[in-house]
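User: Hey, my collaborator sent me this sequence without any context and asked if I could get a structure. I don't really work with proteins. Can you help?
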Amino acid sequence: MTFSRILLSGTAALALIGTSACVTDPNTGEKKASRTAIGAGLGGTLGYLLGGVVGGNTARIIGAGIGGSAGAVIGKQYDDQIKQLKEQTAGTGVDVEEVGNQDAILVRLPDGVTFATGSAAINPGFLDTLNSVAESLITYPNSLIDVYGFTDTTGSTALNQRLSEQRAQAVADYLAARGVARARIATQGYGEQYDYLRVKTGDNVNEPLNRRVEIKITPISQDDVAAARGN
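Assistant: No problem. I've predicted the 3D structure and written it out in structure-token form, which is a compact way to encode the shape of the chain:
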């Protein structure tokens, strides 16, 4: 069965996306919605992905003691890390995607596998996968890490906001416990705000995948470090 994956700010926005917004992955032949087209169609609602890191990068770069990578090195490290993450998480339901033009890497932890309904406790069966993600983050230390939490619409909006924050915190704490420098990590909860739909090709059936956490990995260059330090 073929699926295309679409990131939306709400299910009503599906009407804004036509077939012209689709691209085909040259490696898999899978049709996916163009992130650029979606971002334009929704008026920039993907800002949490395409924007800067949570809280700005200056204090976080200094606090984490990041040295940064030379500009010529970042592209290779970026490609190498995406390849490693895809290989290490293959078959787990994790999506690993490029954000922007090598601006960041997005690791999307799957709905219903990472957390049970109403829970911020990481399912024990998913810890091996998180261990692999942590290993990659340690191997490539010159980056900042934003962990985003999301929920479905079960329960009140206020409850879901708190739950999304707790889910992001749980994943951040686990990564730190596995040896990822805590100063590199920030968290943000989005509650019910952003639906993530898997659209079954040909059947027009939308399956919301919203009990999830996303890990955004933003590479830091030596220029970023110099700017943070005021050099």
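In plain terms: The helical segments are 35-41, 47-50, 58-64, 71-89, 127-139, 157-177, 222-228. You can pass these tokens on to your collaborator as they are.
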